[in-house]
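[Structure tokenization] protein backbone as discrete codes
[Encoding] learned vocabulary of local backbone shapes
[Protein] chain in single-letter code, fold in tokens
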Amino acid sequence: MRNVVGFKFALGMVLVTAALFWDAPCRALGPAKSAHAGDQPQSQEVGPPRPYLSVDAYNQMPDLEKASRLLLLGAEAAGDDIDRVRGEPPRYATARVKNGVLLDSLAAVPFMQRARDYDGPADTLVCILKVHRVLTIRECAEFMRHGVRLYEPSSSVVFVRVAMRDIRWLLDQDIVWWIHPHTPDMKFWKGRTFEKGRKQVWIYSFEGDIKQRWQADLEQLGATDFVWGPTVTYLYIDYERIQDLAQLWWIKTIMPGGQIVTDSARAAAPGVR
């Protein structure tokens, strides 16, 4: 009887030990590759979400070709795999913008056709780019090398600033699903309305520092009483100039503001903080 009890105890310990340590080799083996890998690099498996090497610091450099080289060097120095695929492929071919409009490849067709036929000056514009999966670091660098500035490239919907004549190259890339201009009306949140008068507004930018780079643009529109942040700024502006705000390419989002304390308010009421 004592032997039977001892055997059961030993067997139980083996099973507990196996349960505790079995998960480690399973994680080491990694996820099984899907039979529907699509356009993902065949040599890479889809990795779990993890901090994405920031492209922003490189993206804002004046010389994008140099920036693309430095991005690759930065990834190498960080020990990051430049061909690693982050996240899973998107479930939908659509992208909903702030004003509630649902964009898809059908809505983008007229613009993409114009872009393919375009033979004019190198005017730049901000567009919404839908890709089949998150861009790898190598792909980000390649896009930058071709003059494409990337904003928020850690998802399958990427804002890009690109010359109209270079969109043809973008459309020839297998990773690209569709591209559509980010029009001024898309910068306003659905359901958020502005009343007439001098109103408080907050704006988000694609590139900071707003105060250092874009203050002159805002002052030309009569904006005052700024409260600055790196990529978001509160300001006062006349209702009639709000649509002019939306014409500034570097503004991503415009929203009605709440009550905040400005320098003018402090001057008018010294007790206000």
Q: What stands out?
A: The chain has ten helices and ten strands. The mean pLDDT is 77. The first helix runs from residue 2 to 21.
